[in-house]
Structure formats: C-alpha cells, structure tokens
Amino acid sequence: MAAGQTTTAKRAASRHDSTKPHITDSPITRANWYKHVNWLNVALIVGMPVYGLIAAIWTPLVWKTAVFSVLYYFATGLGITAGYHRLWAHTSYSAGLTLRIFFAAVGGGAVEGSIRWWARDHRAHHRYTDTDKDPYSVRKGLLYSHIGWMIMKQNPKRIGRTDISDLNNDKVVQWQHRNYLKVVVFMGLIFPCLVTGLGWGDWAGGFVYAGILRIFFVQQATFCVNSVAHWLGDQPFDDRNSPRDHAITAYITLGEGYHNFHHEFPSDYRNAIEWHQYDPTKWFIWVCKQLGLAYDLKQFRQNEIEKGRLQQQQKKLDQARSKLDWGIPIEQLPVLEWDDYQDQARNGRALIAVAGIVHDVTDFIKHHPGGKTMITSGIGKDATAIFNGGVYDHSNAAHNLLSTMRVGVIRGGCEVEIWKRAQRENKDIRFVTDSTGQKIIRAGNQVTRVAEPVATAGAA
Ligand SMILES: [Zn+2]
Ligand SMILES: [Zn+2]
C-alpha cells in the first residue's frame, strides 16, 4: 500500500517533468512490452474489425445496406483525401463553410483522428520524409509505416515540428478537435445505423457493414498511402526519397497513388496529372468548384512539372552512362611525339592515329568488319581521312568503339585543338558534363569524327 502510494506520488510529481524519459526511450523487453503498445489504437484499428468480422457471421447483408456501405465508404474516404489531406494538410485549394463542415463530419466518420492532429503529423511527414522526424517513415519498415506507428507508442517530441497556425484559425477544425469523440461515434457508427435502420429497417447491418467494416476499409486505404505509396512504383520526379507513383495504389486510395508527384508538388490539388489516371479525389474537388463550394484550386505550371521530370530522366541517363566504357578521357591521355608514334608502330604495336588521337588496335585487327588488310594499312599513319570517309565513312558505333582503344594524343600544336574539340558539344553549349562531372558524348560527337578531314601532325 505504502509502496503504491509512493509510486503514485512519484508519478504525480513527474507528470510535469519534461526530462522524464518517454517509454519509447527504453528498449522493448518481455517485462515492459505492453507499455509500448497504444492499446486504444489497437482496439480501434485491430479489435473493432475483428469484432465486425465475427458479428458479420450472424448479420445477413441486405443489398441496400451493401450499396450504402460502398457509398459511405467513398464519402468518408473523400473526407480524408479531399478534406483532411488536400484541403487542410496542404491547403491546395480553398473551401467554403458548407464543404468544410461536410469534410469535418465525414472525415470524422473515417475514425483517423481529428483534422488538427492528422494534418500536423502529415505536414511533418512531408517536411521530414524518411527521417526519424517523419511520424510514419517507411525506412522503419513497410509494416511500421502502415500500422506499426499507431499500434506502438510514439514519443511526441520526436515528431518534426510544423506550423499549424492556419488550422488553429479555422473554426471548423477547432470545433471538430474539441468535439472529436462525439463526431467519431456519431458519424462512424450512429449515422450509418440511422440511415439503414430508418431507411429499410436494417439496424444491425448498418452497424456491422456501413459502420465497423466500412471504417476498417477506409482506414486501411489511408494507411496504404503511408506504406504502399512509399514502396511500390516509379519515381518520375525525384528518386532521393521513398515516395512512388503506382496505379494500384491510386485505385486503393481514391487517387492518392501518384505519390512521387504529390511529394514533389504537394500544394497541387491533383495527384494524377494525366486525364486517364485514376484520381476521384481530384474529380470531386473539381466538381465542388463547379458547384461553387470550392475555389482557388492550385496547380503547378506544366513547365515546372516537365522540368522536374526531365531532370530525373537526365539523372537516370547519367547513371546508365557512367556504367559504360567511353575510353580514357582525352585530357588524361599521354602526349606522344609523331616520331615516337611511328617508331612504336614499326616495332610491332598496332597503333593508328585518327584526328590526332592514337589508338591501339592490336586486339581488334582480326575483328575489323572491313577486313584485316584495310585496318593494317592505317598502322603508323594518319588515318583521319581514311576513317572519316576517304575509304569508308565509319558509323557512330565505330567511333564509339574506337574511343575505347585510345592510348595517346599526338603532339605538334594540335593536342590543344583536340581537347577543345573534345569539350565542344554544340554551338549553344560549349561544355556539357553529367552530374558526376564526366563529359557527355552525344551520338556523332566523338572527337575522332571530323566532318572534313583536317591536316594533322602527320600531314604537317
Ligand atoms: Zn508520403
Ligand atoms: Zn500529402
């Protein structure tokens, strides 16, 4: 008893002690694991659906109730996607009072927390994506980002700080936050029961199907945005973080599946930007605008979107490019005297000079598509003219292949010219390098390609 009182006293004293370690600071052990669990959330997102499934065994599904359950699923889902997410968390458009009250009500019926709480966490998720301050970071595992972050207690101090002053000034948000429990119970369970009960006498069906099981499906759909949308699909705009685009995620989540785009352009009221992509949330917002319920729909300029897409494509190209052998960079090649070049060629090294660059073709002679005789005739000579059309105008692929065999640059004033030529891209851009600083060689731009054969050291 005395010990119990001491503990209670200690607990009361430490309630205001911010230095007291949070339960999440101590590792999970066999003795304390239950303290790590958020039992209220377990009851709401695991216990309830299990109860609903068992109750469904004794509850016949009336077709009218089935139709209403699906419709109410869409309504409460849109409360989250169009209301909680795109309106309040991202302010990607503005909504009049009617629409805000509607979203606060049906969004509450999805049983995913108050707008204020939801939007704060979501802003932290965008600001600190994939870091420890991201409340549902997928880096902690797919299951954690889906459901683990709610089932296990989280240290509120760990979640990144965000500005929600705009939400604190929204009367509807404040009212819903203060009356959250009433909103949830009424919109989550009582309202669907009233519709099916008063409508066609199916009170139990309304409770089990339009209430409990519908809540389960809406919750799981939203959770998929945090998990599947950070794990499955493409990254057309930025691949530094985890968000991804995928049609399947879009079908599950009322259009929230183009998540790579969304993280890149979060204040755009759209998730899908192509007409054929599934984004009912976008369509719903657009219809609300036509009805005068929503206004100021924000949209990024297509020019900015295409820039982002192009940069990511360029990055992918650079990555692919860096995996290929482009030959020793020209500026790293040793400089050879013309006489040295001829000496080495005479003494058995199969060297061929093209456009001032020396290539060792020893291993290639027998593979030369134009025959052994033809290539051997160029050894020890300036083969620029022969290679560039004098005998046969070689293909782009041939110039590429030749570059992998280069071993030196001929001195005689022209090496500087060669370096300049190697750096020249086209008349607009003189020096083009990829993101790793490597020079980019576009098709037909190998330095050995000379439009009109020029006089080289050998001819001089
Ligand atoms: Zn995300
Ligand atoms: Zn978002």
TrEMBL record:
Expected to bind 2 Fe(2+) ions per subunit. Residues 1-23 are annotated as: Disordered. The chain crosses the membrane at residues 39-63, 70-89, 180-201. It catalyses: octadecanoyl-CoA + 2 Fe(II)-[cytochrome b5] + O2 + 2 H(+) = (9Z)-octadecenoyl-CoA + 2 Fe(III)-[cytochrome b5] + 2 H2O. Its cofactor is Fe(2+). It is found in: Membrane. It comes from the Eukaryota. Residues 14-23 have a biased composition (Basic and acidic residues). GO terms for cellular component: endoplasmic reticulum membrane. Belongs to the fatty acid desaturase type 1 family. Stearoyl-CoA desaturase that utilizes O(2) and electrons from reduced cytochrome b5 to introduce the first double bond into saturated fatty acyl-CoA substrates. This is Acyl-CoA desaturase. It comes from Trichoglossum hirsutum.
